[in-house]
Amino acid sequence: MVQVSHRSIEGMNTLFSSWAIVLLVMGIATDEWVELIPEDERAKMNHSPWMRCCNALWPEDDLKVVRIMMMSSLGLSLLLNLILGMKFSYLIPRNKYIHLFTTILSFLSGILLLWAIILYHNKLKQGQSVHFSIYNINWIMYTDYLNIFFLFVCGIFSLLEYQLSTGSCTCLNIHKSDKECKESENCIKGISLPERTAMPCSIIRAHTVNSKEGTLNKQTHRITWAL
Q1: What is the largest CA-CA distance in the chain?
Q2: What are the 10-residue block averages of pLDDT along the chain, 227 residues in total?
Q3: In 7-38, which positions are buried (b, 16+ CB within 10 angstroms) versus exposed (e)?
Q4: What is the dihedral sign for C-alpha 16, 21, 22, 27?
Q5: Do residues 132 and 184 lie in contact, with contact meaning Cβ atoms separated by under 8 Å?
Q6: pLDDT value at position 156?
Q7: Beta-carbon neighbour count of residue 61 at 10 Å?
């Protein structure tokens, strides 16, 4: 049985989703995804699926679907990172529905991005013999595969949290965070019974009362408690 902290799973999930956002923003800011080289090598230029230019070299309609899919993946990734950050900072409840929703967002965003990259590669191969002769892939394009990996890892962590919240996963032993442990200790202290005090010792004194007739003796007991 593997022992892991619930808080550490949430932290790693938030970290991977943040790196996915960073890599997507880098892809938007960088235009050097591929280098398109036509027959006239002096007219070569850089290109990315986020660009809306160079219609003469490559028609805009060929990349419209790719751009829409990448924009959808970016929007879902931003929403995923926002929800994970709010869940990590205790701003929203951490129940099974939130875990299931983040799982769907992670896998959907990763699948959309993977589909967009595959379609972009396909468009490059189709346009190689029509709009340009050669294309060279730069390093920034390979970061998208790392981005897809981060999104799928977020989906796996969210799915793990969902299974733990429903109690269907018994392969992990989840430890509570320090904050949760302190809260539980305070609750236990609040309902604990007071300590039993020792019973005081008693002193019994006997008194004999003689009646006026002198024939009947009454014996009374007085109990005093020594504190």
Answers
A1: 145
A2: 68 90 89 79 77 60 83 93 90 88 94 93 79 81 91 93 73 48 44 50 50 49 53
A3: bebbeebbebbbbbbebbeebeebbebbebbe
A4: positive
A5: no
A6: 93
A7: 8
Instruction: Output the pTM of the full model.
Output: 0.69
Q: Tokens standing for 169? A: 């996963």
**CA angle, residues 75, 47, 146, in degrees to nearest 5:** 50
pLDDT in tens, 20-55: 999 999 888 888 888 877 777 677 777 888 876 555
| Of 172, 175, 153, 174, the residue nearest 102 (C-alpha) | 153
Q: How far apart are CA 97 and CA 192, in angstroms?
A: 34
**What's residue 210's pLDDT?**
52
pLDDT 10s digits, 115-144: 999 998 888 887 777 777 788 888 888 888
Q: What is the 3-state secondary structure (H, E, C) of 175-223?
A: ECCHHHHHHHHHHHHHHCCCCCCCCCEEEEEEEEEECCCCCCEEEEEEE
CB 224 within 8 A of CB 202: yes
